[in-house]
């Protein structure tokens, strides 16, 4: 039979544990910011809270060149959602460095400028936290504002859990997708399949097409597919010219030969390569550029 001293120590240990759990709970609660306190948030899955972002790094929409159709389509879709009308989930897929995630942030910034406090909030969820999406939806469902949940470079680290969680956003299960939430994602691949998975299934699967059908079908559940393709030389130079003019870096120097050489040394032409060249020019002039 336990002694009175043992019982006292056990009670003290339980109290310390309870105090620690209460402190952690209070800490997480304090980290959760009101959902009307910012226009953008990052979802921290470990503590299941939303961290407000004071400033989102996003260029003006007019600075994004070579993606006019995607720009118009995503802007129109977001405006409809902000106005309370029906809107589609969107998958932005294609060439790396061509502005997929930048477009999402720029479109959101443009709608915030138009709608002010009535604009939807942008909520970023990291791709490794996709399994926590149902919990995030629960937090957002009853809020008195609209949300665009955004995942950059979407992929499935834990295919079973991640796949089911994403379906809960795109289809919503029995409850249906919350009317105040839409989902925007970027991916380098149209069907969200990692190349290694495609090669492995093709080589070892008994019915490789059937084994990949469910994952491929997931991309079909996005109402909007916006493709991004490598830019040509004229578009690449137009991107750089727009940035240089916006940041007053043009001067009287012919920058085009240097810009073409810059792309050649990197082996591609893209919006990212163009921006990196502009950063280099600004550095040489002793200036700082940022969005």
What features would you describe in this structure?
It is a single chain. With 291 residues, the protein is of the alpha/beta class. The chain has ten helices and seven strands. Strands 2-1-4-5-6-3-7 form a seven-stranded mixed β-sheet. The relative contact order is 0.13.
Task: Summarize the topology.
Layout lengths: L3 H28 L8 E5 L4 E4 L15 H15 L7 E5 L5 H16 L5 E4 L8 H9 L5 E5 L7 H12 L10 E7 L7 H10 L3 H13 L3 E5 L4 H14 L9 H11 L4 H14 L7
Helix pairs in contact: 2-3, 6-7, 8-10
Mean pLDDT reading: 83
Secondary-structure content class: alpha/beta
In DSSP terms (H or I, runs of 4 or more residues), the helix count works out at 10
Unreliable stretches covering 5 or more consecutive residues: 195-207
State the strand order across the main sheet: 2-1-4-5-6-3-7
Percent helix among the residues?
40-55%
Strand % is: 5-15%
Give the H and E element order.
Answer: HEEHEHEHEHEHHEHHH
Overall 3D shape: globular
Descriptive tags:
291 residues; alpha/beta; globular
A few lines on this structure:
The chain is of the alpha/beta class and 291 residues long. Helix content is 49%, strand content 12%.
